[in-house]
């Protein structure tokens, strides 16, 4: 069976749903394109995820948020580190289930198909997606443009490739153990691994409830038992929560790499989201960049222009990220000292704008002076000599 439309979006995660919604919201007088959304069958979808981002004032997804905060803290290994005010910014937490439910009504005009995509290919006049539904039927979808949010089967060649891997517990305590106004962004009171770095991460949902995560930057994920052991140490010995119960869990691994993601693998085929380079290599954050890409693509479609997803992050910041990742990978840069020094000497709001790519070069130079300059310069000189390799 063959179906034709203006646009096919592959994948119903943050990137696919955000793009589909924005495509259906054209300015007055502009026709909305016909959009087909291909999502994986129920048994093949990823588990629920938590996305965090920051922005000034009210945002498009505020009614769907689990929580938001105006202050955050980075703790040194000795526990020091004051809570920092974010100025006009708010740090926001959004659960994937709430996001999907909230966008359901906004996506009423989208034709949705549950299927496994087997092939995406260019055609002279557009592109086609061949997929198979759960009953075994083969569907061929043709469109002027195709946006594919599936991660590539083979990651792009890179000079340095780490993982931000983590496991989190949603906990409910008997006593009021958390400060609801403040996110513990990085708490380095965790045993540091031989390679990379580790930290605790606390998103308080009230005085008795929070999402508590153990996170590492390293080359490979851990066995689940190791995460649970680290979480028990962090919740019981570091945070001293007292009696608590775990109400839900989440786990993941985010690529942190200087690989170059191809946003246009075909004339009429584009990659979006993490597959299109939306993940910030130095932090693992992607949601805000996904929104920028989605808005830009939808605006181009509505204006009748070639809707190529723009770069998610400025090239100069990606170059700085590559230096940091290499420095962490070699051990040349002490991760806990690096991040605590930045947050001690740079206003939190400015640092978050830097991580979002909205700072000016003069601000970035001032931030760079708060890093271990000699180690960074040595690593920057070394990077061009390294070969890009494909890693599993």
From TrEMBL:
InterPro entries per UniProt: FAD/NAD-bd_sf
One Pfam match: Lycopene_cycl
Q: Which Gene3D superfamilies match?
A: FAD/NAD(P)-binding domain
This protein's name? Lycopene cyclase family protein
